[in-house]
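We treat protein structure as text, and this decision shapes the records that our systems exchange. This encoding replaces a full spatial description with a residue-level series of whole-number codes. Below, we set out a record of this kind in full and without editing:
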Amino acid sequence: MTRLLLIGPPGAGKGTQAERLALACEVPAISTGDIFRYNVTNKTELGLEVKSFIDAGAYVPDTLTNAIVADRLKEADAAGGFLLDGYPRTTDQVAELDRLLIAEGTQLDVVVLITADTDEVVARLLKRAVEQGRADDTADVIRHRLDVYAEQTAPLIDVYSARGLVVTIDGLGAVEEVTERILAALTERGLCASAATT
């Protein structure tokens, strides 16, 4: 049973690693970004509400995000563990996640911080924008998102470091190499035991 949080700047490879780690650790990957994009694409009520925030490179308000994550964590497949990608992003969201987990008698097991060079991140996201036609990934918006990350999300690292939960992983290199680095770090902590044979 592993309760894992992936954190790092936009474009650091969290989404790619989340999919691989979820499979290896046999837990669901819960990505707020994917949930938002699904709703925007399908023009749901939620999608219409968050589209303006996403297009501007801003974060969706905590009240909306917290409610979505709370509902998702109550689903049956998350009872045995989960991987969070993109949440929490702020210290207020950390407090809300703590409240949700305490209510269930659980807590996070580890926080994986994926680091990446800023220029590399911008290049990755510009390439992804072309490949996937993502309107939210323009150069200006990317730079803004990185600024917002530094201002709002980086302090989370201090919070979780104080709890002894953070492991830092270099996000540069082949996807497989980064996955191996993360799984090795998890194994050292006695987590994601099933991954040892994958």
Summary: The two ends are 16 Å apart (CA to CA). Helices lie at 14-25, 32-41, 45-55, 62-73, 91-103, 118-132, 139-162, 175-188. The CA atoms of residues 21 and 180 lie 10 Å apart. The chain has a mean pLDDT of 88.
